[in-house]
Amino acid sequence: MLATLFVVSFTMTAFAADPLPSWNAGTTKQSIEQFVAKATRQASPDFVPVAERIAVFDNDGTLWAEQPIYFQFLFALDRIKALAPQHPEWKDNEPFASLLKGDVKGALAGGERSMLEIVMATHAGMTAEEFEQIVKDWVATAKHPVTRRPYTEMVYQPMLELLVYLRANGFKTYIVSGGGIEFMRPWTEKVYGIPPEQVIGSSIRTKFELREGKPAIVRLPEIDFINDKAGKPSGIYKFIGRRPIAAFGNSDGDLQMLQWTTAGDGLRFGLIVHHTDAKREWAYDRKSAIGKLDKALDVAKKHDWTVVDMKKDWRVVYPFEKE
Question: In the UniProt record, does the keyword Signal occur (predicted)?
């Protein structure tokens, strides 16, 4: 018991001394700490009441990796393979024929239409509970194609610390992602400490019906809401009802969320994760097909947003680097 108390006391002391140990000392880390100090210090002219301390985070490329392709697409690809025996027609129909041959580029040649067909075929037709279990099973067993680590280990250790740091200072943290809301909700609380009701994402339509006499929410093959780009501020307004005071992203898909957040009155904070570390992660920005960071990188300078240089600012990238 004494040993346990010592460990807890030591951990709390260490956290108090440096709540962001995976962030290297420098202007980036200082900007975060100064923002939190201003927001929480009672005597500060920038003090923000607890109810207004809302922070929103993109997911792909901001809280976890997104290369070589979005993880939810890899989930859909695995679902296509699992469902293929029930759909012999897929061998001759695109985009499924290309996917079954391992030709992802060919499958996506049809653009948004192909993506929608893939999502509808793999994400609809079952109850909400059935889909949730499918996601949980996949997250528990699937491995990243490059690192061979579970996808939930491909999260960024510095961002995990940032989430804890903000919540310890009275912030309510939300995920606002272009990814599927039903894909994220089954695991975000365990991985990020963010409960399902604080996750906003793209969604498909659902309906209530009785199945074998039991009430169920059934997933339909129809798009309900795309929570990306200009859709992000709309989603925040619709589901949170308050303008955040802090927004965190990594791509042009987060631009409007950052613009809307930092345009409000009072203390504001915007941060962009710039992927600059080709050795520990991936280096990409303006020309990337995944997580393109072009216009937002230029706008960041104009609005004085904090830009994280991953190679320089992060002592470690993933939690498993500390093993």
Answer: yes
- The token pair at 107 is 């499958």
pLDDT digits (tens, 9 = 90+) for 79-117: 999 999 999 999 999 999 999 998 988 888 887 778 878
Q: How far apart are CA 107 and CA 204, in angstroms?
A: 21
Q: Is the model's pLDDT at 71 over the cut of 80? A: yes
Distance CA 112, CA 19 (A): 42
Helices (H) and strands (E) in the chain, counts: 14, 7
**Phi/psi of residue 228, each to 5°?**
-145, 155
Tokens of 216: 């169920």
Phi/psi of residue 136, each to 5°?
Answer: -60, -45
Tell me the whole-structure pTM to 2 decimals.
Answer: 0.93
Q: pLDDT, tens digit, for every residue of 54-63?
A: 999 999 999 9
DSSP 252: G
Strands (E), 277-321: 306-309
The number of angstroms, rounded, from the C-alpha of 170 to the middle of its chain's C-alpha atoms is 21
Long-range contacts of residues 274-279, Cβ cutoff 8 Å, at least 24 apart:
274/250, 274/307, 274/308, 274/309, 274/310, 275/61, 275/250, 275/310, 276/309, 276/310, 276/311, 276/312, 277/310, 277/311, 277/314, 277/317, 279/311
